[in-house]
Amino acid sequence: MGDTKKTYYITTPIYYPSAKLHIGHTYCTSVADTIARFKRLAGYDVRFLTGSDEHGQKIQRAAEAQGITPLEYTTNIVNGFKALWEKMHISNDDFIRTTDERHEKVVQALFTKAYEKGDIYKAEYEGWYCTPDETFWTEQKLGPNHTCPDCGRPVERVKEESYFFKLGKYTDQWLKFIEENPDFIQPESRRNEMIQFVKQGLEDLAVSRTSFDWGIKVPFDPKHVVYVWFDALVNYISALSPFDGDGELYKKYWPADLHLVGKEIVRFHTIIWPMMLMSLELPLPKKVFGHGWMIVDGTKMSKSLGNVIDPIPLIDTYGADSLRYYLLSEITLGNDGNFTLPNFVTKINADLSNDLGNLLNRTIAMIEKYHGGVITKCDDMDDLDRDVSTLAVQTAKDFEAAMENMELNKAIKSVWAFIGRMNKYIDETMPWVLAKSEDAHDKARLQSAMYHLAEALRIIAILVSPVIPVGAPKIWDQLGLTGFGSATIEDAKVWGLIPTGTK
Ligand code: MSP
To answer: How many CB atoms lie within 10 A of CB 385?
Structure first.
């Protein structure tokens, strides 16, 4: 039987191994992971890619400063990336390094293809370069005192022979594409920014360097290395091994459904990358979403300010679920988000320990105490029951709709509103009073209350699983349920699936 599942290919940016990753990077990967997990829950065949962007002058200089080779330098740091993602329970299917041979050969093939087509030509580059951002700038775009207009750091004068890519050639095709695909760039504010940028006129882009050698060699002119962004963007395709065998992965997953990136690199992903693909006559990704930045106590994180937050101690102290929950629920995707430790601690205590933790613990304790741990299936008995069973199904639908819309915090909010409702349901049904009654009707109501609580938790566990993947299956375990791994979003939209007699 053929594989008929719909595919969903989602990527994070590949991170520079120039330093350890901080909570800003952790935020981006956690958002992607949550979307990937949600899509799996929704029945998609998901491919989730992350990786490392290892070439370029900045890395070469950092390695030299430590007296090791660039590859030794990046390997150390990349091992740290992988350890962090494991600790955060990131469910990536692959990890691409731009130093992988599988990547290098695809970059070389695509560079050659664009060259043979006449879209890449050799000339002299003279202008400015922001090494930390690996970005070329013309004089008129610079900030005051020759600084990078993006990051504000000083730029360097560059004069060297370069290959150039004819970006400008694809202006009309790009504008037409954007008009026909209004959802391609998200959020909309970024889309308008990019249209303005392109309409101002694009210069050809320098796509090779000769003043250092830590990069992928231009195959037909090896004193040149491929410009790090031309190299890096190709990762989304090279990871699918398009030229291996019959290119099965590539055929299955390309074009990507979503490139999730930070707002400052939207330009590379929505202008340069699509124009490269137009030149190469390859399909364009379906969507690029530019998320906002994590700031700390209201300030941008920077080494010089010493306010860079390392996620590892936070995970060690509070757990991966806590950090994930905070990052995903506090920030509206697309906006900047502010991290403060007191706010983090308050929020996870209130929402995870109190609201969710108490609902679970109270429910389990009562089922144990009143019915010896056995759940008996009951249909709605009264208005309260009807209220919560209807709300459960509605919550699952709202959650799904918000997730499909990339409104992660709204999706989470809807589940916590339901959790709040269920805590209130306990107070309203007063099981401890029903338990003392000899009345048959009260006994039945108690049974019904326990069933409604357990069912609610079954549904909650499914819905929160993309956000808190460590805790969610534990809820099922505590309820005595099995098969959490194969539960789907559809199972959350149906009330009454816990079989009677579940212990
Ligand atoms: N290597 C390039 C990406 C190449 S993708 C083909 C790069 N690397 S980076 O390590 O500098 O940044 C990677 C991602 O981390 C970017 O999307 C960036 O927006 C994100 N973040 C870096 N600092 C951030 C915050 N403070 N907050 C949120 N995301 C941030 O750019």
So the answer is: 19
